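Q: What structure does this chain adopt?
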Amino acid sequence: MLYRRIAGTGPAQGIFGVHVWEITPTATGVHVHTEESWNGEGLVAQAKVYQPLLDQSLTDWLKLLQEQSEKSAADQIGGTQ
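A:
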């Protein structure tokens, strides 16, 4: 099955992040699998503090992706492409 993998890395506020998105077509749309990791001074020592932030980041990105995808699909169906 064909899929697309999008990955990026970079620093932000003293944290180095790695983000990987795999998008696979399905019979009813697409399946998105995402992984994200952070590394930086203090993160390991405060993993319990940062893990919920990482989890929320993934949730937020997936929600934005879903909203934009559904809007784009609706625009195409409605002819406002």
